[in-house]
Amino acid sequence: MLGLELVVILGITVLTCSVAARRLRVAAPVLLLGIGTALGFIPLLREVELPSEVMLLLFLPALLYWESLTTSLREIRRYVRVVILTSTLLVIATAAGVAAVAHAMGMDWGPAWVLGAALAPTDATVVGVFARGLPARSMTLLRAESLINDGTALVIFGVAVSVTAGGETFSFGNVSWLFVLSFGGGALAGVITAWLTVQGRKLLDNPLHENTLSVLTPFVAFLLAEVVHASGVLAVVVCGLILSQVGPRLIHADTRTQSSAFWSLSTFLLNGSLFVLVGLQANMAVRELNSTGVLSGLALVGLISVAVIGVRMLWMFTTPYLIRAIDRRPQQRELRASARSRLVNSLCGFRGAVSMAAALAVPETMAGRDLIVFVTAGVITVTLVVQALLLVPVVRWANLPPDTQFDEERAMAILTSAEAAFEAMPKIAAELGTDPLIIERTRREYEKRLKLLRQGDTQDDEDHPYRRLENDYQALRLAMIAHKRSTIVRLRDERLIDDSVLRNIQTQLDLEEIRLSRRQALD
Hints:
The chain has helices at 2-24, 28-39, 52-69, 73-78, 80-104, 109-119, 124-130, 136-165, 172-203, 207-227, 232-250, 253-287, 294-316, 319-326, 330-333, 339-346, 353-360, 369-398, 405-432, 436-454, 465-493, 499-522. The chain is mostly helical. The radius of gyration is 26 Å and the shape is globular. The two termini are 50 Å apart. The mean pLDDT is 84.
C-alpha cells in the first residue's frame, strides 16, 4: 500500500512546490529537496529507499533523452573542444580534488576516490532548470557538459569500486580500456538505437504507435549499452542528438504535438519526484550515519562542497588562458568568453541524480559506505541551495549582454520560409487543383503577412497598422473558436449530439486555438 501512498504524496508535493516556487520566485528544485528532507521525518516514509537501479534505469534515460532532443547540436559542434575538456579532464580533476580532501580528513584513498567519482559529474536536469535564462552559449556549454560527463565519472567510479571492494589492481591500460569501452561502446549503442528507431518509424503511421516507440527509445539505448558494459548515459545522449536532427523530416505534426506534450509532462513529474526522493534519501543518510559523528560528517560535507565548487572555479579561470596561449587562431578568438561569463558558468556546477545513484550503488560491504552516502547527499544539497542563491545576484552583477542570435535567426527563418511558400504557391495550387478563389484568398493573406514580416524595424511596434491588423485577425479567430466551442457544448447538453461528436470537434478546435495562440505569443 505504501507504493500508492508514495505516488500520491510525490504528486501533491511536486504540484504544490512548483506552484509555490513560481509565486515565491524560488527555484523549484530547492523547495522540492527541502520538502523531501522534511517528509523523511514522517514515520510512514522513513523506510522509503531509492535503489540506485531505479534512478539509473528509470529516471535518467527519460530525462537525458528529452534534454538531448532539445539541445543544439550545432552549438555543441561549435564549442566541441570546451565540451570535451569539461566533460573529461574537469571531471577527473574534480574527482581528484574531492578524493584529496576526503583523504586529508581521514578517509582511505579507495573510498575517497569512490566519493570523488560520485560527486564529479554535474546534473543535466538540474542545470537545465537553474541555467534557464542564461545566454544561449552558456546554456549550450552547461547542458552539453552535464550530458556527457556522466560517462567519465561512472568509469572512474567503477574502477574505484572495483579496486577498493573487489581487490582488483589499478593499471593504466585497464583504465584506458574502460574509458574506450564506455565512450566508444556508448556512442555506438546510441547510433544503433537511433538507426533502429528511424527504421521503425518508417513502418508506423499512427501517432500512438510512433510515440510508444519514442518512449521505448531511451531505455533501449541504455540497455544496449549496459549489455556491453558501456555508458548507457552516453548512448541515450547520442541517440537523442541524432534523432533531433532526423526527426523534423520524419515525424508528422500530430505525432510531434502528442510527443512534445507527453515528454514535457513526464519529465516535469520525473524531475520533481526525483528531487523529493533525493531529499528523503538525504534524511535517511543522516539517520544511518554510524562510522562517524554527524558534526564530523557535516564538516566533511562543507569542506568537500568548497572543493567541488573551488575546483570548477579554478578550472574556469586557468584552462581558458592556457588554451588562448596555445591557440591564437582568429576563429578561436570569436569563441572566447568574458571573465564574468566564466564566473556565472562556474556557479552552475550543480550535483544531482547521478551522484546520488552512484553513492547508493556502493556495495554494502565497503567500509565507510554510510559516510559516502551522507556526504554525497549533503554536497548535492549545498550545491543546489548555495549556488542557486549565489547565481541570481552574480548573474545580475555580470550583466551579460542580451543574446539576440535566436530572435534574429527566427525572424530570418520565418521570412525565408514564408517567401519560399509564396513563390511556390502557383505550382503547389496547380498540382492540387485548387479553386482560383481559394488561391486568391491565400495569396492576399500571404502578401499581408510578408509585408508585416519585411517591416523588420517596426515589428515590435504595436501601433503599426499591419501589426494591428494581424492582432485583430487573431483575436477575431480566437473569439470565433470560443463561440463554436460553446455552441458544440450546448448541442451536447441538449442531447442533440453525442459526447464522442463533441470530443472529435473539440479536438479540431483545440488544435486551431493552440496554433493561433502560439502564433500570437511568438509575435
